[in-house]
Amino acid sequence: MRLISGEKILLESDNGEAILTSHRVRFEAKKWGRAHLISIMLEELCSCEIRYASKPVLLILAALSVIGGIASKSYDGLILGIIISLILAVTFFLSRRQIISLASGSATIKLRTTRMGLEAAKQFIDQVEEAKSQRYVLRTHQ
Fold this sequence. Notes:
4-stranded antiparallel β-sheet, 3 helices, PH-domain like, 2 domains, elongated, alpha+beta
């Protein structure tokens, strides 16, 4: 990414796909013959969102599988119940999603945050809002 005059990089994701600068937020990904680039100037940024989704019903089904295995009163039933519950529990943990969305009037950057906790995601949003605020203050005092 070529920086604009006076622009500084404030934050960069571990994989280098998302970059927050003093002037803009940029997302660039290249995978298997595909490329995706979205750049939003901070002045145009309208909203920031953190969305978390999981499927807790899978944990309920896992617990029911163990209970069913115990209720079967057979060793094979218990083992089957435990195997099914482990599969459901692993599926639950693999299906959890947290996405940070940064939107302008015409584009939205969606960042999957697989290893980022909720507090770290909030800190990222705070940094984006702080950068936008500083940009606004600079423009109004020129």
